[in-house]
Amino acid sequence: MNKRGRLIVLSGPSGAGKSTVVFKAVEGRDDVCFSTSVTTRKPRPSEVDGREYFFVEPDRFKEMVANGELLEHAEYVANSYGTPRAYVESKLNEGLNVLLDIEVQGARQVNQSMPEAVKIFIIPPSMEELKRRLQGRGTDTERAIEARLIRAKQEYAEADFYDYILVNDDADRAAAELSAIITAENCRAFLRENLLKQEQD
Asked: Residue 9: phi, psi to the nearest 5?
């Protein structure tokens, strides 16, 4: 059955455990791939163009924004990052579900240009648990952790356009839910109407 994949947009606060849930969810699935972003930052020694990122010069990035070649874009630490529309479209047309791990503002941009995208917001069971996880990582100062918690509350307030909210209280259970969502979204009637019409011919 020749079908188009779905674009799956994933967001969630730092410390929600998105990466763990996503990798567990896609393990063993051959119908899912990750989107590769475009960036203006220089590649690190181990990075390969087209694998970790598509590396471009700042002028080319501006050109991509102006031409509508990016589904979303943002700036972090003086470097620009974005999601290339053509790459995502080509993978979707191959029948792959494309996963996009981006912040709420980027997800809102994608929602405007591709409202059919499946939007999933991953959260910890509580703010107390989020704080405990951030402290447990041992990589941030208390001030940085407080800033992340404030940002998380802002993201919660802005996340009113997502289709699903996934609570990561147990990574295996959350991964099973994420995998189930991807499967269910591929079974939607509008994606399979042609099969009904075939039977009527």
From this structure: -100, 125
Q: CATH number of the domain at 7-35+96-200, out of 3.30.750.200, 3.40.50.300, 3.10.180.10, 1.20.120.1730?
A: 3.40.50.300
Beta strands 7-11; 164-167: pairing state: unpaired
**Residue-level pLDDT at 78:** 83
| Cα–Cα distance, 128 to 147 (Å, whole number) | 14
- Report which secondary-structure segment, H or E, holds 37: strand 37-39
Rounded Cα gap, residues 68 and 89, in angstroms: 13
pLDDT tens-digit series, residues 62-121: 999 999 999 999 887 789 999 999 999 999 999 999 999 898 989 999 999 899 999 999
Full-model pTM = 0.86
Domain ranges (residues) in the chain: 7-35+96-200
Contacts of 13 (CB under 8 A, 6+ apart): 123, 124, 130, 148, 151, 152, 155, 156
Residues of the chain short of pLDDT 50, as ranges, are 1
Helix or strand or coil: residue 49? strand
The candidate with the shortest Cα–Cα distance to 166, out of 20, 6, 33, 7, is 20
